[in-house]
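Tokens for chain A. Residues wanted.
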């Protein structure tokens, strides 16, 4: 009779790795397999194996389907069941639930349900195997190898760089005849998001503005002539007349950096560049308008805009997308000190507009104001800025979607299309004059850095403020404060900083690249 057995790993005889003695020791070769099953629509409990699972089932003379029957009815979406010892090569096989085989793009959810189900199921399978100390996993492409690779790599990501005791690393590869090109693309998309997660999760004493810029420079070093990295110094920022940016950095001992990335993926074309601009506050204490201490540690991720933008440029370069992209990241800390900007101070931005800084915690819009002015000097085809800008954005949409404020229906359409594919969603927000009036009514200056009615519509007044620094007809501001971190809402991301919406930015750039 077939039994659900405990793991039986093939035993490999090797030299003792602990004390370098010559006596042989026992070491485990830990290999696992993730396979998918659909639940037949309207027939709860009636499972349908994917192509790869059916192939595997034939190899083990029907043992897999037999065990699935014995182990109970159905297999819900994202749930897994482990079978041990049914195949010599794979001591652990995780079968994961993919739900409805006929699922596709869902108008209500604004995403592709089939892709989301695959990401969720594959990540669950990989994690179960990781917990069983499996170190190499082969993954069923489940009919969409890109989504499967994304689920695997996003699900397995963990930030344990600073822990003495680390979980063993798990390597993954596509199983059987899965589409290897799509898999490779999924790997790069997920690695892009994981780079943003790494930068966001890292503590602020490790990822200073200088360390951030150096990390990105290192990542881009391998791309040769196609990529240029400039780390602009405080002196350069002063020369540019970026008084709003400098007013934020001046309370900190860490020097500001203005990071400028040029990716020339389409060097011979006359195509104007896509400008991506990311808020890079490596720590936001609030400045003199100090934040409460509860959860202040989360503000190490206030460079999430810069992280996702720079990770997208790195990914575009790795994918060799035929497009020209310029990535800009004003990087600094927002700290209180004797040199810090005080509420009521007036500063002058690069375009000459004066700003009354009534709240030093509304610093993101100040650094972006100058970065947006600079972005326009490149005559861009479109400008997209990304920022963990307002707590109000989190109140409005939570972590369901990034809020998009845009003056361009075309740009909205492109961003929305990209997000349906990636499942990292966007939702359109308003840019009414109603909000502009609230930031242009300042006692001392042209603009005030907070809305007149302070808390009401906070995400919208922040967007209206940024609009004052925009002349491009195709501009979008992405407020990512709500999607900055994950508890358990996105099942294929662990608890921690999310790196959202890197994959959506990459997909958007890829679509633009192919439009020429
Ligand atoms: N970085 C914060 C916004 C934020 C909050 C991001 C929570 C991620 C999670 C931003 O600099 C800020 O403090 N904004 C203020 C603006 C207010 C003073 C007008 C806010 O949202 O409270
Ligand atoms: Zn702030
Ligand atoms: Zn901030």
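Reply:
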């Amino acid at each position: 009779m077939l039994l659900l057995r405990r793991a039986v790993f093939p035993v490999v005889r090797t030299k003792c790795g602990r004390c370098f003695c010559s006596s042989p020791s026992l070491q485990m070769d830990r290999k696992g397999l993730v396979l998918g099953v659909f639940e037949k629509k309207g027939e709860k409990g009636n499972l349908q194996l994917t192509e790869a699972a059916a192939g595997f089932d034939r190899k083990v003379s029907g043992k897999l389907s037999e065990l699935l029957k014995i182990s109970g009815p159905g297999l819900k979406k994202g749930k897994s069941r482990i079978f041990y010892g049914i195949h010599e090569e794979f001591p652990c096989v995780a079968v994961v639930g993919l739900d409805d085989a006929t699922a596709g793009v869902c108008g209500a959810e604004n995403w592709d349900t089939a892709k989301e189900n695959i990401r969720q199921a594959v990540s669950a399978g990989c994690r179960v195997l990781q917990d069983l100390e499996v170190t190499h996993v082969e993954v069923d492409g489940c009919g969409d190898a890109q989504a499967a690779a994304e689920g695997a790599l996003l699900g397995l990501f963990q930030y344990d760089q600073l822990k003495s005791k680390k979980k063993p690393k798990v390597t993954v590869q596509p199983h059987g005849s899965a589409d290897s090109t799509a898999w490779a693309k999924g790997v790069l998309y997920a690695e892009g998001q994981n780079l943003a997660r790494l930068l966001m999760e890292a503590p602020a004493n490790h990822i200073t503005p200088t360390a951030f810029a150096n990390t990105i420079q290192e990542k881009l070093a391998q791309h040769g002539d196609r990529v240029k990295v400039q780390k602009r110094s405080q002196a350069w920022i002063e020369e540019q007349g970026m008084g709003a940016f400098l007013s934020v950095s001046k309370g900190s001992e860490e020097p500001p950096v203005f990071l400028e990335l040029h990716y020339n993926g389409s060097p011979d074309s006359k195509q104007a560049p896509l400008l991506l601009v990311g808020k890079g506050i490596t720590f936001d204490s609030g400045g003199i308008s100090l934040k409460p201490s509860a959860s202040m540690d989360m503000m190490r991720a206030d460079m999430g805009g810069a992280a996702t933008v720079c990770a997208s440029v790195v990914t575009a370069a790795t994918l060799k997308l035929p497009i020209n992209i310029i990535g800009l990241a004003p990087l600094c800390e927002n700290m209180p000190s004797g040199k810090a900007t005080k509420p009521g101070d007036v500063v002058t931005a690069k375009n000459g507009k004066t700003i009354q800084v009534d709240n030093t915690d509304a610093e993101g819009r100040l650094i972006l104001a100058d970065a947006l002015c600079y972005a326009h000097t490149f005559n861009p085809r479109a400008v997209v800025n990304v920022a963990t800008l307002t707590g109000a954005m989190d109140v409005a949409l939570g972590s369901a979607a990034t809020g998009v404020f845009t003056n361009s229906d075309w740009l909205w359409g492109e961003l929305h299309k990209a997000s349906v594919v990636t499942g990292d969603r966007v939702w359109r927000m308003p840019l009414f004059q109603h909000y502009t009036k609230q930031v242009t009514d300042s006692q001392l200056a042209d603009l005030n850095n907070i809305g007149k009615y302070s808390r009401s519509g906070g995400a919208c007044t922040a967007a209206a403020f940024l609009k004052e620094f925009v002349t491009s007809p195709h501009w979008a501001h992405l407020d990512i404060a709500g999607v900055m971190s994950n508890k358990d809402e996105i099942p294929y991301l662990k608890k921690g900083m999310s790196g959202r919406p890197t994959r959506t930015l990459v997909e958007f750039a890829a679509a633009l690249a192919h439009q020429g």
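The CA atoms of residues 119 and 151 lie 4 Å apart. The pocket of zinc ion (ligand 3) is lined by residues 281, 284, 302, 363-364 (CB under 6 Å).
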